[in-house]
Amino acid sequence: MPRPAHRLTPQRRAVLEAIQGSHNHPTAAQIYAQVKAQHPRVAFGTVYKALDLLSRTGQILQLEFGDGASRYDGRVDRHDHAICTGCGRLVDLDPQLPKDLAVRASRASGFVINQHMIQFFGLCPDCSQAGVARPA
Ligand SMILES: [Zn+2]
Ligand SMILES: [Zn+2]
């Protein structure tokens, strides 16, 4: 039995399971469509509130890529992402980063750095093969 970290309503649980069962970092709209298949009466606002709560309690990650649609991640350990600017595909990456990266960022900025994530933008293998134009 997985230990419930927080009391979850059936709808919140369905939201969490939709994200954890997905490996492509879905958007709120995609999660809503999936939850609605099981809970036909669920409202988008309910799903959205569940996403907000689950990310604030650290059960999921909310990722922003500056394109207006947050993506959600059931993997919450520190990792980085590459996003395809052609099709929006988003994959997990574990590049070997310099161990002192956060220390150097802290020295340069004067900030106390407590987390960091790196986003790589480019074309996925499918899009680069299909010859999708690279942004200038
Ligand atoms: Zn692509
Ligand atoms: Zn991820």
Description:
The chain is α+β, with helices and mostly antiparallel strands. It folds into two domains: 1-76, Orthogonal Bundle (Arc Repressor Mutant, subunit A), CATH 1.10.10.10; 78-123, Ferric-uptake regulator, C-terminal dimerisarion domain (Dna Ligase, domain 1, 2-Layer Sandwich), CATH 3.30.1490.190. It is built from five helices and five strands; from the N terminus they run αααββββαβα. The strands form two sheets. A three-stranded mixed β-sheet has the order 4-3-5, with no helix packed on it. A two-stranded antiparallel sheet has the order 1-2. A hairpin with a 5-residue loop joins strand 3 (80-84) and strand 4. Helix 1 (10-20) crosses helix 2 (28-38), helix 1 packs across helix 3 (44-56) and helix 2 (28-38) crosses helix 3 (44-56). The longest helix is centred in the middle third of the chain and has 13 residues, at 44-56. It is globular. The model has no long low-confidence stretch (mean pLDDT 88). Residues 84, 86-87, 89, 123-124, 126-127 line the site of one zinc ion (ZN).
